[in-house]
Write a structure and sequence with these properties.
six-stranded parallel beta sheet, Transcription Regulator spoIIAA, alpha/beta, about 400 residues, 3 domains, binds iron/sulfur cluster, three-stranded parallel beta sheet, globular, Rossmann fold, binds 5'-deoxyadenosine, single chain
Length: about 400
């Protein structure tokens, strides 16, 4: 039995009450116009999907969504912590908001998402960005109306990084960015602890949505005109762990829905990608026939240090199986270059694996040390120059295989 992660309905009802209160305060504050809100999302599709629910709450509070922070009364940045570069961009962009706040004192600047779930980042915002009024972590997003109400009523800064084993808030309103190409979250969090990755620390433990809630949302999305539904989770292959519906079962339910749509899913973990799943995909009429299977490295030594839970051979066997069962499958992957202690020999094993699989496209990253992860504390003798030389070599190979269809 999976633990019950659902936020109790009474707690969501309380948030409805706060949303109403905010709406009343805002209509008194801006009697001649609708208050405006701007939300910017950094990072992965998971964050984009979270922002669609945050937008739902923002609209419920009476705001009108706009496309620039310049004239907005409420600005929210939903941040990403996966690589240092993403974090630097957030700090830079938050800095540029200061001038708007100086011009309009009543503007509320808020930050949320993975980056804010890290204590050292939240402290930095608290101490060095006094014009930011609201900061909240990933476990309390559904409480946005309560936080906005508190900022409006007290005029004090609000910080909430409450940690939990993980929660699921069902029934939140959603404002989708793209009705034809819709995101559908099926699970949250990650239990894998790949040694380079910050996600398990900022997103909490793995938990799956109830199949019924997912199917109801899928029907709603299809009725709304979706042509592609992308099922989202950090590790969709372990959907339903501890329950009697696994990921293959869920896909069969979705494939059974009627309508002119395809489904895709992100992200798969090779260690949990079963033959049963590939068999199910091969028999699914709505499957888009794309398989994103991040390998990260082609060297067994590095894979072990990364705590990925599979070997190069196991990965290649899985790829062969998928190619056999789904001959027109389009394969894509993620690669990290410059992991601590990686040698050129290790890197060449990654190149040879890429040559062997012949991906249709790849997402390639230079390793970025993340405070708190295991890899952060590993010896890293690889110089920046070396890493970027290898990265250029990888890009050249990537160019060769760029989408062939
Ligand atoms: N450094 C570089 N790339 C990373 N990724 C995750 N963490 C890091 C990191 N610390 C990459 C992985 C993952 C993708 C979403 O981001 O390749 O699959
Ligand atoms: Fe990070 Fe690994 Fe979890 Fe993906 S599976 S989110 S890379 S820890």
């Amino acid at each position: 039995m999976q633990k019950n992660f659902l936020v109790p309905k009474e707690q969501l009802d309380i948030q409805d009450e706060y949303a109403k209160k905010v709406k009343t305060i805002l209509s008194a504050r801006y009697p001649d116009r609708k208050p405006k809100a701007y939300i910017h999302t950094y990072g992965c599709q998971g964050n984009v999907s979270d922002s669609e629910r945050l937008k739902g709450l923002i609209v419920k509070m009476g705001y009108e969504l706009v496309n620039t922070p310049k004239y907005a009364d409420f600005v929210l940045y939903n941040t990403c912590a996966v690589r240092e570069h993403a974090e630097d961009r957030v700090f830079g962009n938050v800095g540029t908001l200061k001038k708007y706040k100086t011009e309009r004192r009543d503007m509320i600047i808020a930050l949320c998402g993975c980056m804010m779930q890290q204590r050292h980042v939240a402290e930095k915002i608290k101490n060095s960005y006094p014009f930011v009024s609201l900061v909240f972590g990933t476990h309390v997003s559904h409480r946005l109306p309560e936080f906005v109400n508190r900022v409006l009523c007290t005029n004090k800064r609000v910080f909430d990084f409450t940690d939990s084993d993980g929660i699921i808030a069902e029934g939140l309103p959603v404002v989708r960015g793209d009705n034809e190409n819709a995101f559908l979250p099926i699970m949250y969090g990650c239990d894998n602890f790949c040694s380079y990755c910050i996600v398990p620390y900022v997103r909490g433990r793995e938990r799956s949505r109830n199949p019924r809630d997912i199917i109801l949302e899928a029907i709603n999305i299809i009725d709304g005109g979706a042509k592609l539904i992308t099922l989202l989770g950090q590790n969709v292959n372990s959907y339903g762990k501890g329950t009697d519906t696994d990921f293959s079962d869920l896909l069969r339910l979705i494939d059974g829905l009627s309508g002119d749509f395809e489904f895709d899913f992100m992200t798969s973990h090779p260690k949990d990608c079963s033959k049963k799943l590939i068999d199910t995909l091969s028999q699914s009429s709505h499957y888009c026939r794309r398989l994103h299977l991040p390998v990260q490295s082609g060297s067994d030594r590095i894979l072990k240090l990364m705590n990925r839970g599979y070997t190069r051979d196991e990965y290649l066997t899985l790829i062969d199986y998928a190619k056999n069962k789904i001959p027109d499958v389009s394969l894509t992957t993620d690669i990290i270059v410059g992991f601590p202690s990686e040698t050129y020999e290790d890197f060449r094993k990654t190149l040879s694996l890429i040559e062997e699989v012949k991906y249709d496209s790849m997402f390639t990253f230079i390793y970025s040390p993340r405070k708190g992860t295991k890899a952060f504390y590993m010896d890293d003798h690889v110089s920046k120059e070396e890493k970027s030389k290898w990265f250029q070599e990888l890009l050249a190979v990537q160019e060769k295989y760029k989408i062939r269809r």
